[in-house]
UniProtKB/TrEMBL annotation:
Name assigned to this protein: Uncharacterized protein
GO terms of biological process kind: galactose metabolic process; proteolysis
Record flagged with keyword Signal: yes
Cofactor(s) needed: Zn(2+)
Length: 1269
């Protein structure tokens, strides 16, 4: 059904107009002085040679008719009135927008020569007949058409009774014709004439056309047609067919039983693909269900019984026949199902299918497969040796697929090398070039080679996971089986790896090689190793107790980690041991100690056996912990570059002891002193270059009255003009968000010195994934401060306050675990039905209502919105194909697909398509990626659902853009701060042609549940607005929509504000070409808002400016104006109202300030609500009169709400959409009822009020949900 505005526009398209065809005028215009300036021509009467009503009488009820107050200057005065109304008769209402009037329909039928009678039925039953004719009327022919539509899979049974049609030869002139479809060339079911009844005319499809042609209608009465829609029947499908549950897509009826007997041609099978599925759920499908059998006779084999809401897998019969039975009981009706039927041919039965080994039939196609040990060639037909395999030869070589060429993406290979018992496998890598880097602490997240030994207990002992280009040391298996696995993702490919292996006798397997402690194999031999606290005897077999004090410098040579353990571990530790480990690394780095196993004698105070850890170079340093018993301690980090650990055992109970791993940590908190100390860029400084893709922060803390001095002793980082690749950035102060940068350094900076003005400094070291250098050595020390204490206190206070205000927007979007609900269940079902898998994650972005501050965000002023419960909710999965597949939960919207490297947004004069808003957000993320990030792009499978009313001023389009950007960012592993996402989305929405200011995107990301936000721009920042506890906000839809991307009004207002700023700037002798916003103008002039209002009145005229006037004011050319001031979609505008637009902006900015201050300082209660309501009412008046973006239906709601609200205003861009009212709790229902009775019902709305007039409270901003966090 068309919307009200849609019907109005449709009639304009059909060229139907309402005019006077009577001798007396039927309407008059009281005075054109009441008509809005520029609209008077709409009330001129057109001559009859330009317009005709096709012989029909004047139609007051036409949907094309103006309302009494159309284009009224005040919204309520009459601009057009009915006349010629008999005395005592009420004047008719004009201007209805409920639906087409009878006159509208009659004129359309006449204009397009439609049949004079007939209709379309979409009901389960009905009756019809041709019109009764007056016997005294002149003779004329009659043609009627009736169309009946059922859901796919249903049939129509028609009975013709009381037939009295002139009987001509072969029913050639007068007849009733019935066809199996809606087309006049559809299959003929029969042509009838004469007298009698024609029963049981049955369609083979779900459509029927009945045509009545009569040349002698005044002598015969015609017929009576009765039809009934029945479900089930016989279906013969030659290629593709469809069927659905009765009444689909609405809920099916109770107590239904439908049986379809489906056949396809011989040598084919019946294939059933469900497109949607929603039946009542039961574990055994006892209530509502579908039963499927392969075959038509009583011996047909049962295939499946289906119910619930999960879309079933495709079903293929074993023959060319299938019975499908649908049953519903008397309770709980749901949405039903729709299905597609194929005549499926098993290509694998053909001898020429081309598969070398195995052929697998699929729906509509087939695929080839290979036996174990082989894999499919790129030709998808032949088989080749698969990577991996089992090797038992004494020696051999293994390599990655395609070596030495690039290995393929998305590959998984496993090699198993089996040696005889009492033998081991020795593996030596001769080449390694796998996506990653060259450092032992590299986490091989993408591509990797894993090497493990399969132990006798069935468990694996991993030797390592390797990537990058640095070859590992020779690997000796710990059993006779070694497993090597290789995995690659779908992005970067390298040349891979090659390795040789040898099977070597396991000398340690016989009496432990005669070693007292541990035996370790070497290639061709073995050696004995003593455990901690012991040294090897000169006989190279036995172990004797030795020194138990250890000095460990973690980074003299790689690796940067190690393992320590108690004496004799994993055997019981000896009695009366006193051991110490002093672990240190280069200055500027820390030590982390992680216990893997721990079991000491227990005691409440760890008095007997214990481990103690000290944060420094000796047992005199600060103690971090004292441990005993069986509980494994938590990881322990040193504060600076040294850690000291002791172990003590007494002479009684002995346990297994402990083993622990230590390694270095980058950065940390350092205490400066007046002695010089050092910071090294990386733990391997002097032995190797720094690592790529590193992020390291140092916080150097000073003392009161001192500043920190830095000296660059050695410095060698990758050189780049802007230091954007590898760099060290220095910040003056310890606030990670707001400290001032003292510089970003790269290249060679030896001898550079810096002194802070604060009592601390932050150093941030960053590297990219490309070129590396030697690194740096810095010295830091305290020097006496040159900044007064008072200045520090003032600056610190300001920084803390700014940090509190801005903290939320510096954080990434929150990731939460999804709590299943009805919304998620529905989108999951839809997602599974389309993609046959579950989503990987979900994205929610709310709509918003702007409480005050309309049309000023793009002028550089703050606004006060809050997020709504209504939202955009996306379900997303990633794929290895770099392709976007996009579907809408609402099936009336078409799906969309494109390659990710071909994302384009082509604008036309019509409204943008829904998916183009998603493309905006996706395009913004794609264009923000650097070259490294582009390697990890994933394909996207998306289902979009939304509950925000469209074109209602509640930010549905911006929410879709923002949810698209957030879903792409998360899929591509970009963890962007909320501030960056908001700014990016505000910018990329302009791809769709909207010149917004960023409010919608900012509140979408920065919103907090329970409060509104004051959003300010450049820099983007937000402040919580404490709304009165007794304030209720009511949203009311005007039922008039505007798509701001599809019209020029919104962008025209943006340009008018810009031109106002530029003309005033020109008159104030500023560079007008650099002036883009009124807010920039105010800041350049240093005036307050009141002074700006005075300046507007002195600088701009009230009369509109033509384009030539603007060019003259700016003393410029038309081409320069088009380039500097106008946008492509506003360059044809010839008339600009600058005075009114600028006055609104500055006054609205004042109202926002007063609104915010009232909320923050007000004591609550009615006085506060009255002030806030007054500001909202003033805002609407300004939007209506100065900004001219209201609409008569918006104004009507505002008038009706006055009795019940403190204030009401339009919200959003305007020209339709919604209003927001501030209402006391006790008046909410009164206001809703008043709007329903006096606004919505007169427009023909009879239900669904909860979605067009509702209360709202502030909700949270954007969020990512996963099935597990």
């Amino acid at each position: 059904m068309l919307s009200q505005q849609g019907e109005h526009k449709s009639l304009q398209f059909l060229d139907v107009v309402t005019t006077n065809n009577n001798k007396r005028l039927s309407t008059r215009v009281p005075t054109k002085n009441l008509v809005v300036s520029g609209q008077q021509t709409n009330f001129n009467k057109l001559p009859t040679d330009q317009v005709t009503s096709l012989g029909q009488k004047y139609d007051y009820n036409s949907i094309m008719h103006y309302a009494r107050n159309t284009y009224s200057i005040n919204g309520f005065s009459d601009t057009i009135q009915p006349i010629g109304i008999p005395l005592g008769m009420k004047a008719p209402e004009i201007g209805q927008r409920v639906g087409l009037s009878a006159g509208d329909i009659e004129q359309t039928l006449i204009l397009y020569n439609c049949p004079k009678c007939g209709s379309t039925f979409q009901t389960l039953s009905g009756s019809f007949s041709p019109p009764k004719m007056n016997v005294n009327a002149p003779r004329e022919s009659l043609a009627c058409e009736w169309r009946i539509t059922a859901t796919p899979g249903e049939k129509i049974i028609l009975n013709l009774t009381s037939m009295d049609v002139f009987k001509s030869p072969n029913c050639s002139t007068d007849f009733v014709e019935v066809r199996d479809g809606h087309w006049k060339k559809s299959k003929l079911l029969g042509r009838f004439c004469g007298r009698g009844d024609v029963p049981n005319i049955r369609s083979d499809t779900n459509r029927m056309l009945i045509v009545y042609q009569a040349a002698t209608i005044n002598e015969h009465t015609g017929f009576l047609g009765n039809f009934e829609v029945v479900c089930g029947g016989t279906m013969h499908v030659t290629s593709i067919g469809y069927l659905a549950s009765p009444n689909y897509p609405d809920d099916y009826s109770p107590n239904k039983e439908c049986i379809w007997k489906i056949t396809v041609p011989d040598q084919y099978q019946v294939a059933l693909k469900f497109l949607s599925f929603d039946l009542e759920h039961h574990v055994e499908c006892r209530y509502d269900f579908i039963s499927i059998h392969s075959g038509l006779d009583k011996n047909a084999s049962h295939v499946a019984t289906l119910c619930g809401q999960t879309v079933p897998e495709n079903i293929v019969s074993s023959s060319n026949q299938m019975i499908m039975k649908f049953v519903s009981d008397k309770s709980k009706q749901r949405g039903g199902f729709s299905a597609k039927i194929f005549a499926e041919y098993n290509e694998c039965d053909r001898k020429d299918h081309g598969c070398e080994q195995t052929c697998i039939n699929t729906l509509g196609s087939y695929m080839c497969a290979c036996r174990k040990g082989l894999e499919l060639h790129s030709d998808k037909r032949s088989c080749v040796d698969a990577c991996g395999g089992t090797f038992k030869a004494p020696k051999g070589t293994i390599a990655s697929p395609s070596f030495p060429e690039l290995y393929p993406g998305s590959k998984q290979c496993t090699w198993i090398i089996e040696a005889p018992l009492q033998h081991i496998v020795v593996l030596n890598f001769t080449h390694l070039d796998v996506e990653g880097n060259n450092y032992d602490d590299q986490l091989c997240e993408y591509d990797q080679v894993n090497v493990s030994s399969l132990l006798s207990n069935g468990k694996y002992k991993q030797h390592g996971s390797f990537c990058g280009t640095k070859r590992p040391s020779m690997i000796f298996s710990e059993s006779n089986v070694l497993e090597i696995s290789f995995g690659s993702d779908d992005s970067v490919q390298q040349t891979g790896f090659a390795a040789v292996y040898y099977i070597d006798p396991d000398e340690c397997s016989t009496r432990n090689g005669e070693c007292e402690h541990d035996c370790v194999n070497t290639l061709g031999s073995f050696q004995c190793i003593c455990r901690t606290g012991f040294t090897l005897h000169e006989n190279k077999k036995d172990c004797i107790e030795g020194d138990c004090v250890h000095e460990i410098f973690t980074v003299s040579t790689p690796p940067m980690y190690g393992i320590i353990s108690s004496p004799n571990y994993p055997k019981y530790y000896p009695a009366s041991k006193d051991c110490a480990w002093h672990i240190r690394t280069l200055p500027g780095h820390r030590i982390r100690l992680i216990f893997m196993n721990f079991n000491l004698e227990s005691h409440p105070e760890c008095y007997f056996d214990n481990v103690q850890i000290f944060d420094g170079d000796s047992s005199k340093s600060h103690q971090k912990g004292r441990y005993c018993g069986p509980r494994v301690p938590l990881p322990i980090d040193s504060t600076e570059n040294q850690l000291y650990m002791t172990f003590k055992s007494d002479n009684n109970v002995h346990k297994k002891g402990f083993s622990a791993t230590y390694y270095t940590l980058c950065g940390g908190i350092l205490q400066a002193s007046q002695e010089k100390r050092q910071i090294y860029s990386h733990p391997l400084y002097g032995n190797a270059s720094y690592a790529s893709m590193k992020s390291c922060d140092w916080f150097v803390i000073g003392n009161d009255g001192f500043n920190v001095k830095l000296s660059f002793k050695e410095f060698d980082l990758e050189l780049e003009e802007d230091c954007s690749y590898d760099y060290l950035e220095v910040f003056d102060g310890l606030d990670s968000q707001d400290s001032r940068s003292l510089g970003r350094f790269c290249g060679n900076q030896t001898s550079t010195e810096l002194t802070t003005t604060e009592e601390g400094v932050i150093l941030k070291f960053r590297t990219d994934d490309r070129i590396v250098g030697r690194g740096f050595i810095l010295e830091y020390e305290l020097v006496e401060s040159i900044v007064s204490l008072e200045e520090k206190v003032l600056k610190s206070t300001a920084n803390i306050e700014a940090h509190i205000h801005d903290h939320i927007q510096k954080m990434p979007v929150e990731i939460r675990k999804l709590s299943p609900n009805e919304k998620s269940d529905k989108i999951n079902a839809a997602f599974f039905g389309i993609y046959k898998k579950v989503p990987e994650f979900y994205v929610r972005v709310p709509g918003r209502v702007n409480l005050i501050g309309e049309h000023i965000d793009y002028c550089g002023y703050g606004v006060c919105p809050m997020a709504l419960e209504q939202d955009m909710f996306l379900a997303v999965a990633t794929t290895n194909e770099k392709r976007l597949i996009l579907h809408n939960f609402d099936q009336k919207y078409e799906g969309f697909e494109c390659e990710l490297d071909e994302v384009k947004i082509t604008l036309t004069d019509s409204a943008p398509r829904w998916y183009q808003y998603y493309l905006c957000g996706l395009k913004g993320i794609l264009e923000s990626l650097n070259e490294s990030q582009k390697n990890h792009i994933k394909g996207l499978q998306v289902v979009v659902s939304g509950t925000i009313p469209q074109s209602a001023g509640l930010s549905s389009s911006s929410a879709l853009v923002s949810s698209a950007a957030l879903s792409a960012a998360h899929a591509f592993k970009l963890s962007l701060p909320k501030e960056e996402l908001a700014n990016l989305c505000a910018a990329c929405e302009r791809y769709i042609g909207t010149q917004g200011g960023g409010m919608d995107q900012a509140i979408a990301y920065l919103a907090k549940e329970g409060c509104a936000k004051l959003i300010e721009f450049e820099p983007l920042r937000s402040t919580e607005v404490k709304l009165p506890s007794d304030a209720v906000f009511v949203i009311a839809h005007s039922l008039t929509n505007l798509n701001k991307a599809a019209t020029g009004d919104f962008n025209c207002r943006v340009v008018e504000c810009r031109l106002a700023a530029q003309i005033i700037a020109k008159k104030q002798e500023l560079d007008w070409r650099k002036m883009k916003r009124l807010g920039d103008l105010q800041r350049a002039l240093g005036l307050n808002l009141d002074e700006m209002i005075v300046l507007v009145k002195a600088s701009l005229r009230e009369m509109p400016y033509s384009k030539d006037d603007v060019i003259q004011e700016l003393n410029t050319t038309s081409s320069l104006l088009d380039t500097v001031s106008l946008t492509p979609n506003t360059r044809d505008i010839q008339r600009f109202k600058l005075y009114q637009r600028a006055l609104h902006v500055f006054n609205e900015a004042k109202r926002v300030e007063e609104f915010f201050n009232t909320c923050q300082t007000g004591s609550g209660g009615e006085a506060t609500l009255i002030t806030l309501g007054r500001l909202m009412s003033e805002s609407h008046q300004s939007l209506r009169d100065l900004y001219e973006c209201s609409h008569p239906q918006l104004d009507r709601i505002v008038d009706l709400a006055k009795e019940f609200s403190f204030g009401t205003r339009l919200t959003g861009a305007g020209w339709g959409g919604c209003t927001v009212s501030l209402v006391a709790p006790q008046n909410v229902e009164k206001m809703r009822n008043a709007l329903i009775q006096n606004f919505y019902k007169p427009l023909g709305v009879t239900d669904g009020f909860e979605s067009i007039v509702f209360t709202t409270a502030p909700k949270a901003g954007a969020c990512i949900y996963t099935n597990s966090v």
